Amino acid sequence: MSIQEQSNTVTVKYLASLIEKLDKSSETLVFAATDSTLTVAAVWDILNPEVIMPANTICAINFQYATLESQVQAGDELAFFPPVTGG
Amino acid sequence: MLHIHITEQDFEPFSYLSQHQVKSPQIGAQGIFVGYMRDFREEKPVESMTITHYPPMTEQHLQQQAAQLIEKYQLLNLLIVHRVGCVTPMSPLVLIASSASHRTNAMAATQEMLEVLKFTAPFWKQEHCQGSSAWVEANTANTLSTKTAE
């Protein structure tokens, strides 16, 4: 991947049960030249067109909780995960 | 002072606390919570459990939440340990020790930190029994068990 492509990508992580559901734990999305931002929901739909996002899915951008309407920019790390169950 | 430790190693909570707690003549109370793994959930047996997390977010989230609690409750020390990896029944999973000048703050901070670990810190449990595995889908609400001892 070239430096230019890296600067136009979003790293997407899937965690816990979503890894098994999607059979992947990480991937990158290369922004189209016309996109400066995308919503979290749009990123899911682009990368997982065949899979409806589970209703209880939680997301984080750069390790901070976000919403499906939050804007994702090139260089961000976006994570999708189920409800947490620590403690 | 804040001490956060996420570990794949089994730990003995009171030895850990003894080694890592900060002593101060201003401390008048310490609220301590230790959580252990049970061998059942919803009346079904559990043989072992795998705890995973999202390392960069876990550390950042715990740092942020703990810093807020230190300020809110004027804590003099806050120590948090959380197990990850494979655990078996009776293993300690969590240690929280909040030190403050007064008991109300120490106890409230410990309770609030536990709620952070249960409901916002990115940890997940997967239970194993008799060759099958199941993700814990949600933590139970913070309610008292009303079932009396027999």
How are the SSEs ordered, and which strands pair?
The complex is a heterodimer of chains A (87) and B (150).
Chain A: H1 3-7, E1 9-14, H2 17-22, E2 26-30, E3 37-39, H3 40-47, E4 58-61, E5 64-66, E6 71-73, E7 77-81
Parallel strand pairs in A: 1-7
Antiparallel strand pairs in A: 1-2, 3-6, 4-5, 4-7
Chain B: E1 2-7, H1 13-20, E2 29-36, E3 40-41, E4 44-45, E5 48-53, H2 55-72, E6 77-83, E7 85-87, E8 92-100, H3 103-119, E9 123-129, E10 132-135
Parallel strand pairs in B: 1-6
Antiparallel strand pairs in B: 2-8, 3-4, 5-7, 5-9, 6-8, 9-10
Précis, in short:
Chain A has 87 residues and is of the alpha+beta class. Chain A has 3 helices and 7 strands, in the order αβαββαββββ. The longest helix of chain A has 8 residues, at 40-47.
Task: Describe the fold and architecture.
The complex is a heterodimer of chains A (87) and B (150). Chain A has helices at 3-7, 17-22, 40-47, and strands spanning 9-14, 26-30, 37-39, 58-61, 64-66, 71-73, 77-81. With 87 residues, chain A is of the alpha+beta class. The model of chain A has no long low-confidence stretch (mean pLDDT 92). Chain A is built from 3 helices and 7 strands. By secondary structure, chain B is of the alpha+beta class. Chain B contains 3 helices and 10 strands, in the order βαββββαβββαββ. In chain B, strand 9 and strand 10 form a beta hairpin. The longest helix of chain B has 18 residues, at 55-72. The model of chain B has no long low-confidence stretch (mean pLDDT 94). Classes of the chains: A alpha+beta (87), B alpha+beta (150). Chain A binds chain B through residues 13, 15-17, 60, 63-65, 77, 79, 81-87, and chain B through 35, 51-54, 56-57, 60-61, 82, 93-94, 114, 117-126, 135-139.
